[in-house]
Amino acid sequence: MKKVIYSEQAPPAIGPYSQAILAGNTLYVSGQIALDIAPLNDVAAETKKVLENLGHILAAAEMNYENVVKASIFLKNMDDFATVNEVYGSFFTTNPPARETVQVAKLPRDVNVEISVIAVK
């Protein structure tokens, strides 16, 4: 059984997908971007907003950052890794999840960072 999870506090999906899907006790959160801030010239602010959006979606599933077991970070420029890592670390202060960080050629809406997570109750 799967259940669509949606938070009005996070930006709506920009395509044919759900913000998140709860399957059993596992939550799969689609990649989030900072649609709701502009201009996109401050990677720290953009990363903070992305993580806040993820938090809203987690809360809609009655979870929080401590439930996250896996994160995937996609960067437009790997030179932003240290900045993104610092902001990310402020949200995952104890027992951080497994993760990967990769540089990609382009992200939706020309953002600098996109993050998706998997969480478990």
Automatic annotation (TrEMBL):
Entry-linked InterPro entries: RidA (IPR006056), RutC-like_sf (IPR035959), YjgF/YER057c/UK114 (IPR006175)
GO CC, any one term: cytosol
Example of a GO MF term: deaminase activity
Family named by the database record: Belongs to the RutC family.
NCBIfam families to which the protein is assigned, alphabetical: Rid family detoxifying hydrolase
Record-given protein name: Endoribonuclease L-PSP
Originating species: Leadbetterella byssophila (strain DSM 17132 / JCM 16389 / KACC 11308 / NBRC 106382 / 4M15)
